[in-house]
C-alpha cells in the first residue's frame, strides 16, 4: 500500500468514525422525544403476558419501566440480564409496583406463557414475560427496531442472536436511556434512579 493510499484510507476511516459519532449523538439527543405510541420506537400492540393475560402498550405508562428483548433458551445474555435487573431494583430498594420490568421474547414459537413463567418466576418476581402469536410479537419487536436472527444448531435446533440492551422508559413510556449488556452496576442503577426522579 502506497503512502497516498494509506493516507486516503486513514481519512476515510476518520470521516466514517466522525459521521458515526454524529449519528449516535443525534440518536441519543432524539431519544427524549421517542414514545411507545409514536413512530420512532414502539407501536400499539396486544400480546399475552406469562400469566395468560392480555397486555398492551399501556403497561409502559403510569410508572417508569425497564424493557428487555430476549429468549428463554439464551445461554448467557438473557439469564444474566434478568439477574441484573432484579438485583439493581433490589439494591435501589424500589417497591415492586414502582417500576415495571418486562422481558419480551423474540422466540415466541418456543416461549409460551407457561414456559416464560417457569423461566422467570424462579429468578425474579419483578419481571413480567411477554409473548403471543409469533407474527404479532415480531411486529412489536420490529417497532422497537430490535435486532434478532435465528442461527441453526443443526436439525430443528436453533439459537438467536439478538439486541442485548435494556430500554429505560419514563412514566410516559418514553425512552430516556439505555443500559448496555454488562454495564457497570453503579451506572445502570444511576440510570434507573434518574428515571424515578
TrEMBL record:
<dbReference type="InterPro" id="IPR003782">
    <property type="entry name" value="SCO1/SenC"/>
</dbReference>
<dbReference type="InterPro" id="IPR036249">
    <property type="entry name" value="Thioredoxin-like_sf"/>
</dbReference>
<feature type="disulfide bond" description="Redox-active">
    <location>
        <begin position="74"/>
        <end position="78"/>
    </location>
</feature>
<protein>
    <submittedName>
        <fullName>SCO1/SenC</fullName>
    </submittedName>
</protein>
<comment type="similarity">
    <text>Belongs to the SCO1/2 family.</text>
</comment>
<dbReference type="GO" id="GO:0046872">
    <property type="term" value="F:metal ion binding"/>
</dbReference>
<keyword id="KW-0479">Metal-binding</keyword>
<feature type="binding site">
    <location>
        <position position="162"/>
    </location>
    <ligand>
        <name>Cu cation</name>
    </ligand>
</feature>
<keyword id="KW-1015">Disulfide bond</keyword>
<feature type="binding site">
    <location>
        <position position="74"/>
    </location>
    <ligand>
        <name>Cu cation</name>
    </ligand>
</feature>
<feature type="binding site">
    <location>
        <position position="78"/>
    </location>
    <ligand>
        <name>Cu cation</name>
    </ligand>
</feature>
<keyword id="KW-0186">Copper</keyword>
<dbReference type="Pfam" id="PF02630">
    <property type="entry name" value="SCO1-SenC"/>
</dbReference>
Amino acid at each position: 500500500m502506497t503512502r497516498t493510499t494509506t493516507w486516503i484510507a486513514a481519512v476515510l476511516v476518520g470521516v466514517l468514525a466522525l459521521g458515526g459519532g454524529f449519528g449516535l449523538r443525534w440518536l441519543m439527543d432524539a431519544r427524549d422525544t421517542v414514545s411507545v405510541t409514536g413512530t420512532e420506537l414502539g407501536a400499539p400492540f396486544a400480546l399475552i403476558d406469562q400469566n395468560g393475560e392480555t397486555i398492551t402498550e399501556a403497561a409502559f405508562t403510569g410508572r417508569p419501566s425497564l424493557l428487555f428483548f430476549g429468549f428463554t433458551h439464551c445461554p448467557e445474555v438473557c439469564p444474566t440480564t434478568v439477574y441484573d435487573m432484579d438485583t439493581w431494583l433490589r439494591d435501589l430498594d424500589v417497591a415492586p409496583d414502582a417500576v415495571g420490568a418486562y422481558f419480551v421474547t423474540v422466540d415466541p414459537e418456543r416461549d409460551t406463557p407457561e414456559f416464560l413463567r417457569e423461566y422467570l418466576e424462579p429468578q425474579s418476581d419483578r419481571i413480567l414475560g411477554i409473548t403471543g402469536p409469533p407474527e404479532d410479537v415480531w411486529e412489536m419487536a420490529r417497532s422497537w427496531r430490535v435486532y434478532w436472527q435465528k442461527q441453526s444448531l443443526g436439525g430443528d435446533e436453533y439459537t438467536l442472536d439478538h439486541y442485548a440492551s435494556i430500554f429505560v422508559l419514563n412514566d410516559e413510556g418514553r425512552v430516556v436511556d439505555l443500559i448496555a449488556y454488562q454495564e457497570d452496576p453503579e451506572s445502570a442503577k444511576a440510570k434507573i434512579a434518574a428515571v424515578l426522579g
